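Recall the central idea of this unit: under ordinary conditions, the amino acid sequence of a chain determines the structure it adopts. In this exercise we apply that idea directly, starting from the sequence alone.
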Amino acid sequence: MTSPGESHAVAVTTPVDAAELAERLHGAPREHLGRPPVVIVAYPPEATRLERREAFRAVYGPIVARIGEPTLYGGSAWGPNVRWRDGARLVLLSGDRFQVTLSVHRPEELERDEHRCFTWGGAWSVDEPHDFDLLPYSWQLYRSGPGEQPGDIPGRRLAGGWEHLESALGLMLAAWTEQLPVQVPGDWAGFTIVADRDPGRDLVVSYSPGEGLGVAIDDRDAEQGPERVRQMRERGWQGHDRGWWQSVFPEAYENSAAASARLAVTELRCRGATGPQELASRDAGVNDRGELWLPGLGIRTH
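Accordingly, the structure predicted from this sequence is:
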């Protein structure tokens, strides 16, 4: 057992060594192309999400200080996926539940393989397991930083049913709570979900640093009597303010992402949506700065 605040994470290299490695990969990529990723942090199986986050923070800061802000922030269901990219090289800082690695790639080769995964993967029916946890990344943020934006953005992976959507949303929100505070500290993130058969009603999903995950639904057209209050609280809503029902799930709780996803999907189904194919997201952003892409959300994205 570890004491409060003590991390299970083990640094394979020092943060300074990790920064020097990143500089070599970035400055002389040809010497390192084709080599396997180098592990810079390792986690034992019992490491928590917050422990992994803080261990990643320890190496991320020195790397950015050495080679600059990345071209693309991002992450998968398993860990961060940060890229310094131009036409000749793609330095990849990535992680999963076990380790953080640094590597360098030819952009066109790596991105071609990733696009195949987005295009040809996925469950063929609701009875098959989804593969949202296997996507190369579930979110990316481009803020016109150093390097070059990819010419093509992969297509979104659509959920085959409600359970798949709940899993996809939960995985992405868990990734946000682990990855956003390190990559874009202090920034909020969010998006709005709308249903084809109820296009004027917004369901907002968000992350706020220090607070956690939030879900809110516009319910201004409903009379807020005792029966309505009972109904909404049974669905999982915590409070009502100026026509909106809201719930907040602290980021420190391991089940907050799953609870947020469950509430969002429950509400969409109660409002009459028959499946994820009727849903779309819009207004995705991080602090109203840059372009936020959500290929792992499981619904149409605008």
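The longest strand covers residues 198-208.
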